[in-house]
Q: What sequence folds into this?
């Protein structure tokens, strides 16, 4: 839920205590809602939180959004791994390698589906 610029997250179902929880979302722009969800899950005792997001829509003109999630960044301890697909290659090709971001290539699956 949002109230102006503030986001409020309530975990309604499940219990992540002692688990590595993966948050699945369709797209990410600033990551604010994902961060608040991860914090709420960790507060319930999750050992780790990762995110899978189909479309990384990070602003190409604002690299600070991406830097927030890198090791040593503001939210570095929030996500163990941040998976995104390469559905927007102009964004994902610029993500730092060997950090929290892992880019999943869609092309093998797309090519397979087009053949069948």
A:
């Amino acid at each position: 839920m949002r109230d102006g610029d503030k986001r409020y997250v309530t975990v309604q179902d499940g219990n992540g205590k002692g688990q590595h929880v993966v948050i699945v979302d369709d797209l990410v722009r600033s990551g604010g809602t994902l961060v608040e969800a991860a914090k709420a899950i960790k507060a319930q005792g999750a050992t780790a939180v990762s995110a899978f997001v189909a479309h990384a829509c990070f602003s190409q003109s604002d690299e600070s959004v991406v830097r927030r999630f890198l090791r040593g960044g503001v939210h570095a301890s929030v996500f163990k791994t941040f998976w995104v697909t390469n559905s927007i290659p102009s964004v994902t090709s610029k993500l730092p390698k060997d950090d929290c971001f892992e880019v999943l290539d869609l092309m093998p699956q797309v090519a397979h589906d087009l053949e069948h």
Residues 58 and 99 are 16 Å apart (CA to CA).
